[in-house]
Known about the structure:
The complex is a heterodimer. Chain A is mainly alpha-helical.
Amino acid sequence: MPAPDQASLPNVESLYCDHHRWLQGWLRRTLGNASDAADLAHDTFLRILAAPDHIPEKQAGWHLQEPRAYLTVIARRLVSNFYRRRSLEQAYLDALAALPPARSPSAEQRALVLETLHQVDAMLDSLPAKVRAAFLMAQFEGMGYAAIAAALAVSERTVKRYMAEAMARCILLME
Amino acid sequence: MHPADGMSPPAPRPGDAAVGPAGAAIGSAGASVGPAGAAVSEAVALRAAQWFFLLRSGEASAHDRACWQAWRAADPAHELAWQRAERLSRMLGELPAAVSAQVLGRPARADRRRAAKALALLLATGPAGWLAWRSGPAREWLAEYRTGAGETRDLRLADGSRVLLNTASAIDVAYDAARRLVRLHAGEILVETAPDAAPAGDPAYRPFVVQAGQARLRALGTRFTVRRRDRAHGRVAVLDGAVRVDVAGQGDTVGQGEAAVPVDAAGRGGGAVVVRAGWQADFSDAGVQAAAVDAAGAQADDWTRGVLRVREMRLDDFLAELGRYRPGLLRCDPAVAGLRISGAFQLRDTDAVLDSLPRALPVAVAYRSRYWVTVTAAG
């Protein structure tokens, strides 16, 4: 996480003072939950503080034309990410519940796996359903391209293209 | 840069709460910057991915390997992309396979669908499409819209008409000075036509037409669904108003009762069939067959409410229908194909529907993987 840029701090501070309460209200209406709303409002400003230097708004010293619209763009993604993470955790718990107790991972292992799953899930999120499905079948279900092609009713050539597309998306989104 | 508001939110960082890949879909510049300042473009990422799969396939020649090395050395961005590919591969390798398949393959829930919907709306009403339409009403404006298995999409067309795409569907929209044409390539749509700017009868009036293979369906002020079963067969169901069905190169046209009256545009009693509200018609290259819709049964637009309603349906037919709404294979063992099923089923969670089958029928559901499911006899 880059260190906050000292020069633009006063502007972020005034952004916070002017709009934090409004943003928290907006999030509360969106989420229907005050404590999640407080967390996500906080995270929105953390995100701005940690923004990389090449972001045009940061280069402009956070003098935003429409600060509330900008904040809601970031907050919306936080909300979507929040829901996605929650459904991922639930799916992980469901999967663990189906395992025999002897194979149940330790708490540390769980945390590590969950974090990695979350990263992969986020990277695959915007892919079309079939591309995502093909990638998961190859990576985690040990299916060959021919089997995947049959399962998705596409050609093997298309499966190859799907695989490259999924991997490329991940490469693009990785740090 | 950002179609909705012209802003450029921070670059996408997977796993980072504030900027998820949703941003990559609608707002990123298509490049991500690495620690050394090298930028990985979409093209470079794709090339790295292609190298990765070629090398892993075991089919790479010595020449391929030399080219790969040269590619990596040619640009710091190439090397960065390659390292990410390797790191990703290690990450995936460390995950427990069965659990990960289940977790990452979980059905798209409401949250993901909401994001997809917002994006569809943006595409449908985006400035590019609107400007193209406004700047040249005489010019054909072509657009293509698709949905994957389990997805639906709600489109508002340039004239205000609404088209809902059901699962696994694809359409082109071709509007020009003479007509409003929607080509249905696959799947199913619900159409709600808006009146054209010019009244019917005016020379400037543009009819609203859905082309499904050989069949042309002309809306006569209306709300209707069209489904293509395959290249040659389809069904139209009319909810309001009426639709005239023409089959190019048709043989005999069969119209039953007062709901389906053979007419053509010039009133010469050609091969067209007018299907009225509450009726549906199956069309194929051979002609059109209309029949009244069973008022107590399923509604043609049930899917727009996310519901599949069936009564005494054969299990194999039911699974074929359900299979439209999920990726992968859904097979029915012939031993249980003739069992009958009734009920209303929620399409947004087809896993739950499958899970419920053994409670209703003497069947078992075998998951070879989440994408390969077979329904067999119980026990």
